[in-house]
Amino acid sequence: MQRFSRRGRAARPVPSAVEAAAPEVRAAAETYGWAALAFYDISVTWLNNRYVWRCPAAVINRQYNAYATVRHLEVGVGTGYHLARARWPGRAAITLADLNENTLRWTARRIRHHEVSTAVVNALEPFPDLPGAPFASAGVGYLLHCIPGRLDEKAPAVLGNIAAVLEPGGVVFGSTILAPGPGTPPRARRMIRLLNRRGILNNTEDTAADLDRALGTVLAEHTLEQVGEVALFTGRTAAPDGS
């Protein structure tokens, strides 16, 4: 049984969310301990995004400013950098969903000025009754490239689970680092190889084409663009009239 908490106190891991996850999925989630989170914003959000992935944090933050609503779900929460910097239309009810309790606690504290709920979940499995559902918006930033497996398998699973807890016409947006392509600079290729060897990334076969197909399968409409090595996407579930 999943367990939840409100006002920033993360639920304890439970067998259905953590122990039942495949070992490689648990290992990917456990990458982010307190030390890694302490350096994440400067090493990943600022340095790597700008100089390795060629997609500055400001580009990703524009997604939050454009699409995040006051009834928001964040899946794969990281340090909450973009949630903390987003221009919200008001005090928001935000549900944080992740397999890693460290990231849940870290992010919940960072955005404690909002109404925060947390849930320990495996994004590859159907979500339980999340607090705050159905949501008007959902963010899934820099999660897909962490999950083991092919993008044409993991993306439909994750996006489908998110779409299932969105209201009709709800928006999902996110970003993911793709596998190297013809225009990928050497420093990015080296970093992707290194992070895949360490199990931090699992994206050696992740292509924009596979992501585009997954978005089209799950969502009523979507957009996809690539900035540097990063794919940025948005999409909506079908509206009440089926459009």
From TrEMBL:
SUPFAM superfamilies for this protein: S-adenosyl-L-methionine-dependent methyltransferases
InterPro entries for this protein: Methyltransf_11 (IPR013216), SAM-dependent_MTases_sf (IPR029063)
Signal peptide, first to last residue: none
Superkingdom field: Bacteria
Pfam families for this protein: Methyltransf_11
Methyltransferase type domain: residues covered: 73-173
GO-annotated molecular function: S-adenosylmethionine-dependent methyltransferase activity
Protein name in UniProt: Methyltransferase type 11 domain-containing protein
The organism of origin for this protein: Frankia torreyi
